[in-house]
Amino acid sequence: MNDPDQFPEIIQFMQQAAPFPGLPDEALRRCVSQFSIHYLKAGDHSDRLQDPAIYWLRTGIAKITDKHLRLYDQLEESGCFGLALAGLPDDAKLTIVEDALVYRLSQQDAQTLATEHRVFKQFIQQSSSRYLRHANNPIQEQVLNLSLRQFIRREPVTISPDASAQQAAHLMSQLHVSCLPVQQNGHLLGIITDRDLRARLVAKGLPADTQVKQVMSTPVDTVDAKQQVMDALLLMSVKRVHHLPIIDGKQLVGIITSTDLMQLQQQSPIFIAGEIARQTELAGLISCCKRMPEFLIQLMAANVQPERIGAVLSGIYDSVTQRLLALAEARFGPPPQAYCWVVFGSHARQELHLASDQDNALLLAQEPSASDSAYFDEMCRWVCDALNACGLVTCPGNIMASNPEMRGSVKQWQSKFEKWLQQPTPQALLKSNIFFDLRPLFGEMGLADILSQQIAKQTQNNQMFLAMLAQVAAANSPPLGLFGQLKTEKDPLRGACVDLKKAGLSLLTDVARLYALASGTPAVQTLERLEAAVDQGKLSSQDKDELTLCYQRLLTFRQQQQQTDLQHQRSSGNLLAVDQLTPFDKHQLKDIFAVLDRCQQAILLKFAGGRG
């Protein structure tokens, strides 16, 4: 570097970058004097990884991938790369994501520093573990678990709804972005994307001076800055959107896009959902779903919370179901009347896992004629068989739309629910429990809304129904024997086992469902139901926190067992091998069951006057 006037400012910056805080001032100053400065343009596939040197990013973003474009590393301000660093993979490629200013130190100068200063030598040697970690863990825990506030790349640039589409396109091109939030007086009104410009402006032949508000997407989904990257990934997957504004309170603070999530590459649920939406044949959908176990294993390896994995899996099977129904309509012709495909149970609660089966039904706008019934019978059989082929296996209890009893008009379904609500019996409620977890997936969604509103209205203050439901929820006790010992069952592959679904998760979801119906909340997910019960004064915060911990720990136990089962290439379910647990894990499991037992006694006291 020839300009010593730049030294103080560069030295101040480098004092924040590894390994320079550990270098003496004289060594740092000499090192900076040996820097050369380079500008790298966004989009360049640079050959600088073959250069025997080390580079530090002053500004910009770069990524290092293998030949299959799987990410090894993403580099931002103060990040470094170069052939002089140990452990760089042979197939590594460098791509500049955002215009970058970099400082280069030759390999010879770096080796001199390493000889003179142990901290610099250790920095070079330890860089190998960084690449190994990224190579072995393509879905990176540190990325998924970042808060969105930490993940924000830049301040959001907005545009007025009264601006022209041409102005929006020019600004997007100038900033190298694919979207712009649309704001007026600090209020987020919508978002305009490059896809909006193509589909709503160019494709329709509208003039360039068309106002942004005429072609923007609105309303727009948002995500809170306190949430994690995984939450945004899930929402983008479920909603099938590629841009999410990040808000703090009511203030827009950033944007996250599917491009930002390049770390996840082709294992991203957004990518998989997009692939699913493009399939035109059942064989293509089956092929997409065959990748599901590998994808879930990677999520598990990244220590993603089990409830989030369940939500991602549910979102993907939402996409599979929706695509199958679209293919079914193309195969069998337009439906003779409006319908809504709904899911029940764990799928409705967005809590699917590897051993889940189908629970679905069909709501019709009106009572079907003979020809209507014939059409829906053929269509539903094809869809349920196709779901089975895609990995969501058939329900042993035949709670599927292929069963004629699971198809009917909204009025017929209302009559079923009214009977369960007005004349509840333990036997009827035991069979109908699952139907109170209901979520629409495809078709005329308003049909399901009618049913959900009726349920919420008729359950909230129905003391007889709630009392009976409490008795059903407390009918099966957790597997604890005398003196708090675990009661197990035998499995030929796993030895002494506990069925986590029957012995724990089902008991907990039954309790959450009871509180949700008593609270009149539309929430379906278990943890959301517990939150809503606290908001309505039906459950204490302490009890909610205790149940939440139990729920998350039970899911973790099941996930760990499923990982083991996958490694041994055996079918995975809800059985937990007790003999494989540590003493601490066994103690935790007993504590969980003790909490559930106390909770069952509490709901009997609260809703059924203590009568079991």
Automatic annotation (TrEMBL):
Superkingdom of origin: Bacteria
Key words of the record: CBS domain
CDD domains: CBS_pair_CAP-ED_NT_Pol-beta-like_DUF294_assoc (cd04587), NT_GlnE_GlnD_like (cd05401)
Alphabetical list of InterPro entries matching this protein: CBS_dom (IPR000644), CBS_dom_sf (IPR046342), cNMP-bd_dom_sf (IPR018490), Diverse_CBS-Domain (IPR051257), DUF294_put_nucleoTrafse_sb-bd (IPR018821), GlnD_Uridyltrans_N (IPR005105), RmlC-like_jellyroll (IPR014710)
Transmembrane portions of the chain: none
Gene3D superfamilies: CBS-domain, Jelly Rolls
PANTHER family: CBS DOMAIN-CONTAINING PROTEIN, CBS DOMAIN-CONTAINING PROTEIN CBSX3, MITOCHONDRIAL
Protein known as: CBS domain-containing protein
Organism, as annotated: Corallincola luteus
